[in-house]
Amino acid sequence: MSKQLDVRDVDVVFSGGFGGRIKNKALSEISLSVGGKRPSITAVVGESGSGKSTLIRLLLGFQAPSRGAVFYDGKPVAGMDAAGQRLFRREVQAIFQDPFDVFNPFYKIDHPLITPLNNFGLVRSRDEAYARIEKTIARVGLRPEETLGKYPHQLSGGQRQRVMIARALLLEPQIILADEPVSMVDASLRSTILEILFNMYREESISLIYVTHDLATAYQVAETIVVLYRGQVMEVGAADDVIHRPRHPYTKALIEAVPSPDPDVPWDLDNPEAGEAERRALAAFDGSTRLALFRTDPLRAVAAPYDSPGERVTAGAIQQAVSEARLASVSAR
Ligand SMILES: Nc1ncnc2c1ncn2[C@@H]1O[C@H](COP(=O)(O)OP(=O)(O)OP(=O)(O)O)[C@@H](O)[C@H]1O
What we know:
The protein has 13 helices and twelve strands. It is α/β, with parallel strands linked by helices and 333 residues long. It folds into two domains: 251 residues, 3-Layer(aba) Sandwich (Rossmann fold); 57 residues, no CATH class. A hairpin with a 5-residue loop joins strand 1 and strand 2. Helix 4 runs parallel beside helix 7. It binds adenosine-5'-triphosphate (ATP). Adenosine-5'-triphosphate binds next to strand 1, strand 2 and helix 1.
């Protein structure tokens, strides 16, 4: 049983202009929940200005709703006592788009890892803190000896993002809100970071709200997709249904906007347009084969072995690649 974060029928209205007479409804009639009986991953997909950041601030308790309420573990976040708030602050963690903004450039990256452990009384000594930090750093795929003791600018963007994930994990959260966690990371690391997030869910029962503009990665990790447009939920459902049987014209338009290159043109690994779907397809092979990549639908790609660039791939090879890629995608979810 994991704890539940619940948004019930929330509006967020911002006032602007002279005397606050101009009203901007950033969120309208929003209801969603994560966690509860079993942990879950929900993706919230929306374009710029759809209200994603406002939603994250609302979920973190930084933005008060104009109507409706947010509940954590059945209690309204707005009315929590000090002890409740403290628990909420520890158990609901966020990971942001650009971790560089979060780090203080004058402190080594050990600082934002040790401080919350001390503040929440989770460790009794510096040695205990370092033992936990090293273990967690390793879990997000970094080497403690190459990471700790460094300043933020001495790490790559992907390393900084993984340190932020480690920081969230150290606090033993119930729920993680990930706000565009891979949009600043280069393509080759995107899958790795999404996989780390997915493993937190699978291995530690942490629920995840993954906020993104990218339908393909949403489909990759989430079981439920919420499509947000101008502050309203346009469509919500199981990821497969939303992607393969979209009901709302806006969702259809989003899916159509995912680039789908000519299936007759083989891709190679250096193709800069290769995205999540291609990388997943590649995972179906052991990497020893030369591969050409094809999109089969907007969000799925297959990899087929080929001998030399430009050579046409046989239908049989594609068929085999399709079945193997499907198998890979089934087991990855
Ligand atoms: N503090 C604020 N005061 C007034 N209006 C705001 C405020 N914050 C957000 N808005 C407005 O609310 C709407 C939603 O903004 P929000 O930042 O949540 O969108 P977003 O989906 O996160 O966009 P992006 O992906 O570009 O960050 C926009 O119209 C924005 O101008």
